[in-house]
Design brief:
This protein is an alpha+beta fold. It has two domains: about 80 residues, Histidine-containing Protein, Chain: A, CATH 3.30.1340.30; about 250 residues, Outer membrane phospholipase (ompla), Chain C (Beta Barrel). The protein is built from six helices and 16 strands. It has a twelve-stranded antiparallel barrel with strand order 5-6-7-8-9-10-11-12-13-14-15-16. It is elongated.
Length: about 375
């Protein structure tokens, strides 16, 4: 059965390599990214005219611009104000059309708490993407990826293949008063597996399963992720049957995580931590800290690929707050926004305690190349 799975992985890897080669031979222009940047620029420009020149209160309207088409939702009928806005905005370069929609106050106008956190009374079910950008260098970020690494620890050295399957599925999003802002509830799941490629049957070493409920929030360049999640870890059958006979630990826990991030001109810094609210083994220390820095370039560097990279760091109370460091850097192809199709080719390096499975007390180091897909 494992050989069939590994055969599928190899076939999938070859298909990914072929697709990547075709992409390099026939690169497409980064038009989507440019369009998105134009919408964001127009959103800020239109909002500044409404509030600075026409003296509209920030929570008296909702603005959304998609492909140059502006939809302005107001919560009170005022023909003179609407006519003035239409006259002032109609000649803006790049703005294709303006639609002003009036919603009843009790249906669309935000309440006191909503105004405080900057969201409106409107929203949508099953939104695309997430308000908190996925962390680039976090080895436990749920996503679809495959990587090949040189692995070493004090006991062993081998070539390690890692695969991951994961997604964040939006359930409902409350819109913010400006495009891109809001509050979102999602469901998130992931699988992380590692294989020893130097063994005769490419032994499965470990598989981690995660399932969680993240609540994400964005206001301008600030974003927040509050997540409750479960993880369980399982050793591979071949590893248990091998001559190494590792001592099995039933690792399973639930944790609550809080991370805040701030973006600035392509850069992003973030920090937070988590607490284990239920754990097995019982003697696991519950606290950990998590922080890092990222960069996302807007201009293509090579083959229409934008430069991206990140440094992710964690310190666990269980390991006496020793520093675990993950570094990834490479190129991103496709649409830059969460929820859109993209591909990343990344070089990676990790040093610290093992982030996967029951080997959390083992110091390791690995480096290699990874391919990840985003949707």
């Amino acid at each position: 059965m494992l050989m069939r799975v590994m055969t599928c992985f190899r076939i999938t890897g070859r298909l990914c390599a072929a697709a990547f080669c075709l992409m390099l031979l026939f690169p497409s222009p980064p038009a989507l990214a440019a369009d998105r940047a134009s919408d964001e620029f127009l959103t800020g420009y239109v909002a500044s005219i409404l509030e600075r020149d026409l003296h509209w209160e920030r929570d008296s309207y909702m603005l959304k611009i998609v492909n140059g088409v502006a939809t302005i939702t107001v919560f009170q009928e005022d023909p003179m104000r609407q006519e003035a806005a239409d006259k002032q905005l109609r000649d803006i370069d790049g703005l294709q059309r303006i639609a002003i929609v009036v919603k009843p106050a009790d249906a669309a106008k935000p309440g006191a708490f909503s105004r405080f956190i900057g969201i409106t009374g409107q929203g949508e079910a099953f939104p695309t993407g997430d308000l908190f950008r996925p962390l680039i260098a976090d080895p436990k970020q749920p996503q679809f990826f495959v990587s090949l690494n040189g692995f070493k620890s004090p006991e062993v050295r081998y070539t390690m293949a890692s695969v991951g399957f994961g997604e964040t599925f939006g359930m409902y999003r409350f819109f913010g008063s400006r495009e891109g802002n809001g509050l979102q509830l999602s469901v998130q799941g992931g699988l992380f597996a590692q294989f020893n490629m130097d063994s005769s049957s490419s032994d499965l070493i470990n598989a981690d399963y995660t399932i969680g409920i993240p609540l994400t929030y964005r206001h301008g360049d600030n974003s927040l992720r509050l997540r409750l999640y479960h993880q369980s870890s399982h050793l591979g059958d071949e590893l248990l049957l091998s001559g190494n006979h590792p001592e099995r630990v039933n690792l399973s826990y639930e944790a609550v995580e809080l991370i805040y991030s701030r973006e600035w001109r392509g850069w992003r810094g973030y920090g937070g931590g988590e607490y284990l609210i239920h754990k097995e083994p019982d003697d696991l220390e519950p606290l950990s800290a998590h922080w890092g820095i990222e960069y996302r370039g807007e201009k293509p560097l090579v083959w229409n690929g934008r430069p991206v990279g990140g440094v992710d760091m964690k310190s666990l109370e269980e390991n006496d707050w020793s520093l675990d460091t993950s570094v990834k850097a490479g190129l991103e192809f496709g649409h830059p926004d969460p929820g859109q199709r993209r591909l990343r080719l990344m070089a990676q390096w990790y040093k610290g305690f093992d982030p996967y499975g029951q080997f959390y007390n083992n110091k390791i180091e690995y480096y290699g190349l990874g391919l990840s897909l985003g949707f």
